TrEMBL record:
It comes from Dactylosporangium cerinum. Keywords: 4Fe-4S, Iron, Iron-sulfur, Metal-binding, Oxidoreductase, Signal. Residues 1-28 form the signal peptide. The keyword Iron applies. This is FAD-dependent oxidoreductase. SUPFAM superfamilies: FAD/NAD(P)-binding domain (SSF51905). Pfam families: FAD_oxidored, Golvesin_C. Residues 539-670 form the Golvesin/Xly CBD-like domain.
Amino acid sequence: MPYTRRTMIQATLLGTGATILSPTRATAAGPVITADLVVYGATPGGLAAAVQFRRSGGTAVVVEAGTHVGGMTTAGLGATDTGNTAAIGGLSHEFYRRVYGRYNGTPVTATSPARFTFEPHVAAAVFTDLLTEAGVTVHVGRPLATVTRAGNRIVELSTQDGQVYRGLMYVDASYEGDLLAKAGVASTVGREGNAQYGESINGVQLRDKHQFTKAVDPYVTPGNPASGLLPGVSAATLAPNGTADGRIQAYNFRMCLTKAADRVPFPRPDGYDAGRYALLLRYIEAGYTGPFFNAVSVGGGKTDSNNDGAFSTDDIGMNTAYPTASFAARDTIVAEHRTYQQGLMWFLSNDTRVPAAIRSATAAWGLAADEFGGTGHWPPQLYVREARRMVSAYVMTEHNCRGAAPVADSVGLASYTMDSHNCQRLVVGSGTTAVAKNEGDVQVGVPGPYQISYRSIVPVEAQCANLLVPVCLSASHIAYGSIRMEPVFMVLGQSAAVAARLALTAGSNVPVQQVSVATLQSQLRALGQRIDISGNSEIVVDSRSASGVTRAGTWLSSISIGGYYGSDYEHDNNTAKGVNRLRFTPALPAAGAWTVQLRWTAHANRASNVPVDVVHAGGLSTFGVDQRTSGGQWVALGTFQFTAGSAGSVLIRTEQTDGYVIADAARFVRA
């Protein structure tokens, strides 16, 4: 549905507490809407900016091109990509504490626990509370049309319905960077070559993750290039690793699935073409049995289901035009992605050429009946993982992510793996050795939280003096792959709002580039924002953390007993004693004394004699813990000296244990 015809509010997502204004076709533009701060993009970063600005006493309005509010956080991405949770502070951390409060019926305080996995409607309710309490109005269905400037300042913007929004400060919090582009701010799309910033994992990257594990011929007639390529396979020639190009990582929808009896079967989309999955069928015929998508529990018997494997929910290579396309053209691309992914799930569930075991396993899942009612229970937001990226006076690069380039003007921390999904699927080899390969997937961990420069979220002053960009910030492709997580966008949205408020209180003509960084950082620290690497006082490694967890043997996920940290806990199924082991390895930001704590869920069937090894700077200390008691809390094992980095760890063993062994999470608290 084109943006110009979007007239429905996602009431099931936002509820009725927040003020959400939506135009209809008959709506004429109203009087000019004025506010101290105009935020373009109702993403988590944009909402955080508006809420913070209102809390500081200013006026703010949010303008959103589509009708969905809350971005990916309310659109199925319920298994939050946190990286190191100790890097998440301020309003962002408050959001996740509010999620915990919603689930547990407890008041939210500065020391409340946080929950980073949640159902979409719960995230929407939390945003509704934040917007309502702050008195923020969100105008949806208002795609950007024009931006008016006076010198190097934005004066006003207008939307396609003719509505004018006028502010003193502006935030571009859209996933696409449309406001910064209309304002004449420099940006880029695609992958830089490694040589541009002296990086090692940017540009073209043919690697082994989410890759075909069996040889699959890419041609319509196997072995015959003249017969043409199967759908989804590009005719492009593979360039050497590290080569620059204009491609971006793939998009998909993060499905909220369930096996509940009232699940909604996968729909057969209009325009379904089984031929699109010919390469997948050939892969299955070669012996591949899955996975075809993942199913990470978020609570309520539901999942956040994402791409998993070589041929999955990512519509690889079909988004290249999206970042700079018109709104109408983007609608077409979104619809194409929806048709592809719905068709994939239909194909896996129903096509009789697919083995019965795969069909039945896929059909056991369906769409959650109590989510996304306004869009047929399908997620209302395409996951735009990357679009435009601003080019400002400071570009965040791989060097920052690896901890090799600290900055003095930090306004937030990031800590997630340098992550890029595949960018293209093409032919590698020739003749009888020709096979289909995916290219672009990179998954390289970072040693610990790293700082994000204030200069990377503001343009060059000559280009625009009253705009901040917390989402499409200035970063290389691979650095953006680490920064681009929703908690970080909320962190940067709040920091942008504090900077905008400082610029206004210092005088209406003070450029955001000239805000006192020392004053900004002081105010951010007072708000609980975490901007100092050495200031991290708590590191949590959950069994579902993106890094820092290694396993031996088989561990099973469960949510049967409450009190666990994050989305679930794991157990050894009371088998393979001595074989099953799980190690938590933190990335400690500084050497010194750290108190080690362990968490589990208690039950009479648990082991009373679980051996736990703590590896620290002084050697190895072994403890026995009784998991039949003290469940649902952090149990201190002791305080030890650690070196900075990842030399220390906590190992849970299962030798001679007398019941189920639980592995949930470990916490390291600066002593």
